[in-house]
Amino acid sequence: MRRRTLLAATWAAPATALAGCATRRRRAADGSVTLRFQSLAWQQESIEVNKRLVREWNAAHPKVTVEYVQGSWDGVHDQLLTAFEGGEAPDVIHDASDDLADFAYGGSLADLTGLLPRALTQDIPEHSWRTTTFGDGVFGVPFLQEPRVIMADLDRLERARVRIPTAGEPWSWPEFEEVARRLTGEGRYGVAWPLKEPVSATLNLSLSTGGQTFHRGADGKVTVRFDAAEQRVPRVVHDQVNTDRSAARTTLGMGGSDTLPGFFDGRYAMVPLGFSYRQQIVQQAPRGFRWTVLPAPAGPGGDQRQGVSPQTLSIAEDSPYREEAAAFIAFLLRPRNMVRLALGDWMLPTGRQALAHPALHTERRGWATGTALARHLRSAPAQSVRGYPEWKDKIATPAFQEYYSGAIGEDSLRHKLVADGNLVLRRYQR
C-alpha cells in the first residue's frame, strides 16, 4: 500500500491520547509530566551516551522529565508484548524495525505521522523510513543501522597476495570463494560463518544477488519463494563448508563473538560480521594483530545492496504524552546527537547530516568502509511480513542450519522454506 509521504511539507494533526491512559497518568498540577524511555543500549559507551543525553534533556526541560529505563535485547519482543497487554509500556520504546510489524498492525504503537519535526523526517532517507512503515502508518524512527562486513586478518591476506577489496571495488561472490580457498590449509580456514542465527544474515546478503524471498502479490498477500536469486548466497556458504572445506563447520552454531578467539589466533582469516563487532575486536585483539574491514561481496553487476533492520524509536499507542515523547525523540536524533549515538554503538546513523560527520569517514577502525556502504542499505526482505517471527523460528532457522551443515540438500531446503513456510504465513493473512 502507498504510505503517507513523510517528507511532505505538512502532516496530519497528531492523534489524541487515549482517554483511559490520560486518566491513569494525569499531568501534575503544574503541568509537568514524566516520560519513560526504555533503552536497549548494552555496550558501556552506548549506555553512557544515552544516559548523558537524557540528563541534557532533563536539564533543559524541567517540566518534561525523562526516566531512563534499561532494557535488554534478549527477549525484548515478549517483554514488550507483556507490557502492552498490561498497559505498562514505556512511552518511548527502543527496538529494531524487524520487531515492529506485529506491534504496529496490532495497534500497540502510535502512528508517528504528524508528530515529528520536518527537519528530522527530511534528514532520514525514504528507503530508511520504509523499514518502519506498515500499511499507511509510520511506527518508528529508524536511527542506527549496520551493514554486514568482513573482518579480515590483514597479514593472512597480504601473505596470500590476494586483491584487497574496497567499497568501490568489492569482491564478487565467486572471487570471495576463490580467496577463501587460497587462504585455507594446514588446519586453518579461509572463512568462519557464525550462523547460530542464520536467517537474517542469509536473507539480507541475498539482496546483492537479487534475492527477495518474500513476494507480495496484487492482493497484498505475501508468499515465500526460493528461486535462483535466493539460492546463490546460501549455496556459497553450503559449498564452502561441505565441498571446498574453506569454511569451518564448527562455527555454524556460533554467535559472532564466539568466533573472535579463533580469528585472533589465526584459525580463520575472515569472519563476516555486523559492523559494530569492530568494538569487540578493538577491545580483545592481542597486541600486534593487524585486521581490516572489507565490504561484503557484490552480486551481478557489482550489486552491493544489503538488507538491514535499523534500530528504532517508537511511541506507545497508550502513551498520553505523545507530543512530549516525539519532542524527546527529535532531541535524541538531532544530527549532533545522532553522531554521538552512532559512535557509542559503533554503528551508522541513518540521518544524512550525521552520516557526513568527519568522525565517520576516517579510515581508522574501518569507519570509512562502513560509511561508504550506507547508500546500498535497504529494508530487510522480511520487514513488513506478518508471521515472519514464527516462519523464522520454526521453519527457516532449522532448515538453513540443516542445509549449511550438509544434513539436507537444496531441494529439501526449498521445500521447507516454501511449502512449509507458506502454510505458516497463510495463517497470518486470512
From TrEMBL:
Domain of life: Bacteria
Keyword Iron-sulfur annotated: no
Keywords attached to this entry: Signal
Transmembrane segments: none
Statement: the UniProt record of this protein carries the keyword Acetylation: no
First and last residue of the signal peptide: 1-19
Stored Pfam families: SBP_bac_1
PANTHER family: ABC TRANSPORTER SUBSTRATE-BINDING PROTEIN, ARABINOSE-BINDING PROTEIN-RELATED
The protein's name: Extracellular solute-binding protein
